[in-house]
Amino acid sequence: MNDTIDITVNGQLRAVSKGVTLLELLGALELDPRAVVVEHNRTIVRRPALGDVRIAPGDAVELVHFVGGG
Amino acid sequence: MATAVDTLRDTPFTISGRTFHSRLMVGTGKYRDNDTMVRAIEASGAEIVTVAVRRVDLDRTRETGVLYHLDPKRYFLLANTAGCATAEDAVRYARLAREAGFNEFIKLEVIGDQETLLPDVQGLLEAAKILAKDGFRVLAYTNEDLVTALRLEDAGCAAVMPLASPIGSGLGLLNPHSVRTIKRRLHVPVVVDAGVGTASDACLTMEQGVDGILMNTALAAAHDPVAMAHAMRLAVEAGRTAYLAGRMPRREVAVPSSPLEGMLD
User: Fold this and answer.
1) pTM, full prediction
2) Which residue among A9, A31, A66 sits closest to B100, beta carbon to beta carbon?
3) B107 in catalytic set
4) CATH classification code of A4-64
């Protein structure tokens, strides 16, 4: 019936499809997996494993990259 | 006796076994636009360029990542843990940076006070120990306290980075004696980080014998960042060369430069 789950991405609540992987989440957000680092529930997930990790309701995902800084 | 050629040749600037061609390291923050940043970094001659780790902007309303503008093959990217207020946060950011990055080097900052951005020494030492054990080459941003600097070295830091004055203040080198003492007592490289405002500050800092300088705001907030970057490059080279040349002793009284003999009656 309900095909979406609620998760947190970069501190924002988002609804994503049930059973989606981290790699599919990046695709939905139009992000290049080579350009971001993914932290899933406080654990870094390396690029080759992104397609293996499925997102569960309530998960927290952080997507980071390098910005200007001193 | 060393000749001018020997002096100018200098020893290599090496951190944790890796040699760099420039003693000037620059940040990438706060530039008015990316084109100015890229041209200023070029003019500075810097090889080591610092970057910060932040969330990707999912709304794409802000600029994209800095790597879009800087060639990571041309520059050695040194990620920082800027903004972190606890050892735990700093370790988390460092690990994310290592995953995003191209090397094991991390500029470690643990900020203890938001007004002065002075380091939390206890958190800094804690994070330095964890990261060094985890294989990171830690460059630790710290205050000009000798004992902290010694403990950071003992904790396994690859370099210690005392401030000249608070981050972004441009107040210049406030405590040359302390920085000199740190340089004299440590075995790892000492790179002064933060506080340099203009070329004379950079020159004076290098004259203390430190191994290098890291700066950001002095370039980014200059009226002409590209020209200031060029000036800083010259100042760092001048200060380094003057240090190697060995300055004359200071005297309380005048000593004439022209002969006293042969004066007319």
Assistant:
1) 0.91
2) A66
3) yes
4) 3.10.20.30
CATH class of B19-55+67-245: alpha beta
Between chains, do A70 and B95 touch, taking CB under 8 Å as contact?
Answer: no
pLDDT in tens, B74-119: 999 999 999 999 999 999 999 999 998 779 999 999 999 999 999 9
Residue B52 to residue A69, Cβ atoms within 8 A: yes
pLDDT digits (tens, 9 = 90+) for B35-87: 999 999 999 999 999 999 999 988 876 657 888 888 888 999 999 999 999 99
Provide DSSP, B24-90. EEE---S-SSHHHHHHHHHHHT-SEEEEEEEE--TT--S---GGGTS-TTTSEEEEE-TT--SHHHH
Selected for mutation to probe chain A from B58, B67, B92 (highest A CB count within 10 Å) is B58
Question: For A32-55, what is the mean pLDDT?
Answer: 95
- Dihedral sign from CA coordinates of B176, B180, B181, B187: positive
**With an 8 Å Cβ cutoff, is A68 touching chain B?**
yes
Residue ranges covered by each domain of chain A: 4-64
What are the sequence ranges of the domains in chain B?
19-55+67-245
> Are B58 and A29 inside 8 Å of each other by CB?
yes
Place of tokens 């500075």: B44
Q: Do B29 and A65 touch (CB under 8 A)?
A: no
